[in-house]
């Protein structure tokens, strides 16, 4: 009887060893870095790292664009104020068609009268301005 139990015990141990051998091969294929799930995990990890770097670069570019847009908005507001001042000063100009009489200062035509009247008014509209009215840079730059 002991001999039969020993034979069954050895057969069970050999069956368990064979089963473990098959499971080890399947697990090795499953974790293979080229074809299995391990490869997919490695590829996804690399893609996550790339996306993280790209996201940080995009956030930096968005911050720079935000700063640039803020500066451009400030410049545009300054230019808008100047344009409002110029438009307001244009309302003070006399209408050349409203004056039918021609004096010695208007003999050259309406263009010279417009030039003569706008020059003093524009200089009065922006007194002591160190920059020209239509400059590419704002006064704060």
Detailed description of the structure:
- This protein has three helices and no strands.
- The protein has 141 residues and is mainly alpha-helical.
- The protein has two domains: 1-30; 38-93 and 107-126.
Summarize the structure.
This protein is mostly helical and 141 residues long.
Question: End-to-end distance, in Å?
Answer: 104 Å
User: Which percent bin holds the helix content?
Assistant: over 70%
Number of domains: 2
**Biggest β-sheet description:** none
Question: What fraction of the residues are assigned to beta strands by DSSP?
Answer: under 5%
State Rg. Answer: 43 Å
How many strands appear in the DSSP assignment? 0
Mean pLDDT: 78
| Shape by Cα distribution | rod-shaped
Q: What oligomeric assembly is this protein in?
A: single chain
- How large is the count of helical segments? 3
**What is the N-to-C succession of helices and strands?**
HHH
Question: Structural class, please?
Answer: mainly alpha
Low-confidence stretches: 112-129
Q: What topology does this entry show?
A:
Blueprint: H1 2-30, H2 37-90, H3 110-125
Helix pairs in contact: 2-3
Jot down its keywords.
141 residues, rod-shaped, mainly alpha
